[in-house]
């Protein structure tokens, strides 16, 4: 089967809690500026515990996944977000982080086993979660993350996933904008978002980009 034929069979559906393992895997495989971060971690689930899995479990979140039926309905990409960022942060603080902190105490329970820098950084985030910049939330209460496995990139799926998120936020939540944060070093990702109509949000932290839905290309 050709790449084009397989691409026509991939479909998008709403995320579910049972997708957590797949979300975690995709997050790890794209966590190093779009590349695999497997070699940076001894605990490969950590990136997903921060940036992927909570969105499949918390009420203020939403998400859609790409599914490849040729691979046994494997999840191969996602767009995840929150329609109310502040509510999501509160829910994560109360219902998500306490559970995962129990598995990853900080400082580490075993001081004889040094942590890799990337593991240490994510464990610190679990114990001191980031809060979205006020200027970003003022632009829109909604934010999102998107990740797609390498073999499915550059086939239009990023645009389709974001389009599905926009459709949801507009029709189900009555919103007209969203924002996201990206690694400023990821030049390719920034160009991709700019092509879709995203613009940098003035006075926001570097890498914060916003989309007015009428500008989506």
UniProtKB/TrEMBL annotation:
Q: InterPro entries from the xrefs?
A: Acyl_CoA_acyltransferase, GNAT_dom, MshD_Acetyltransferase
The molecular function terms in GO held by this entry are:
acyltransferase activity, transferring groups other than amino-acyl groups
The residues covered by the N-acetyltransferase domain are: 83-214
Q: Which keywords appear in this protein's UniProt record, sorted alphabetically? A: Transferase
Keyword Transferase recorded: yes
Instruction: Give a single Pfam family match.
Output: Acetyltransf_1
Task: Indicate whether Transferase appears among the record's keywords.
Answer: yes
Entries under CDD domains matching the protein: NAT_SF (cd04301)
Q: What is this protein called?
A: Putative acetyltransferase OgpAT
- Which source organism does the UniProt entry give? Grifola frondosa (Maitake)
